[in-house]
Amino acid sequence: MLSFLKKDPRVIQFVCHPEDDGVIARPVPAKSVLPDWFRRLPAVDKGHLSAINNGLTVKRCMPFLDAMTTGWILPIAATVRLDIKDDGRSVEAGWEFDRVMVSNHGAHQVAGNPKEPSPPCKFHNYWSIRTPPGWSCLFLPPLNRPEQPFECVAGIVDTDSYSAHIHFPFFATAPDGLHVVEKGTPLVQVIPFRRADAAVTAEIRAETRVEAVERETIHRNTIAAEGWYRKSARAAR
């Protein structure tokens, strides 16, 4: 299992130039910016509740919720316009901000990738990210959130030693047209982890009888109650 900072008192730092503080959009905890559709969704849809349907929604699915609420959301610093043309083969970016917001990668660097014909582009980020010794960060498209007209590429950076600005390659994914990416739009989800905890070996085999019983017990407890079964929560009661 990865060990996340929410289980550890140490701090991740997002640092910007003094003149950018209060101007560029700030990183926020992922749990503070849940999508509106999810906030409105009831845990139990009474319209579907019946003797043969428990009416549960994804709001009771802890794996789904934990994915959305883990880590931080790093937003785009300022508003950018993406003009997508020629069936996605051309992407032109414009902005009024006094910092470079988008640049391009050479298409040859990712020749044959599944996002073709969209060219590889790059959002510029002006937050330096620092973590304690032994900690890295996973950067990936925000989990279980509405799609944007772009998709950033996932990556891992050893942020305990690399404190320069980390920029985010992306592909335009929207249809041809002008698409406005407003200041504060989520670019990536930042999930810190301790490298030592991530460096685990794999054991691949058939389960034992004890493991089978434990798995079945967890499954039966899950379907017997209203929502995701947590062994730790059950033990605490």
Keywords:
16% helix, 237 residues, alpha+beta, 14 strands, 5-stranded antiparallel beta sheet, globular
Layout of SSEs?
Layout: E1 13-15, E2 28-29, H1 36-40, H2 62-69, E3 72-75, E4 80-85, E5 90-94, E6 102-104, E7 121-123, E8 128-130, E9 135-140, E10 150-152, E11 155-157, E12 168-172, E13 177-181, E14 186-194, H3 195-198, H4 209-224, H5 231-236
Antiparallel strand pairs: 1-8, 2-3, 3-14, 4-5, 4-13, 6-7, 7-12, 9-11, 9-14, 10-12
Structure description:
The chain has 237 residues and is an alpha+beta fold. 16% of the residues lie in helices and 25% in strands. It is built from five helices and 14 strands. The protein has a five-stranded antiparallel β-sheet. A four-stranded antiparallel β-sheet has the order 6-7-12-10, with no helix packed on it. It has a three-stranded antiparallel β-sheet with strand order 5-4-13, with no helix packed on it. It is globular. The two termini are 24 Å apart.
Run of helices and strands = EEHHEEEEEEEEEEEEHHH
Strand count, sense and barrel status of the largest sheet are: 5 strands, antiparallel
- For the termini, the CA-CA separation is 24 Å
Number of strands: 14
- Identify low-pLDDT runs: 232-237
Record the strand order, biggest sheet: 2-3-14-9-11
Judging from the principal axes of the Cα atoms, what is the shape?
globular
- Portion of residues in helices? 10-25%
Strand fraction band?
Answer: 25-35%
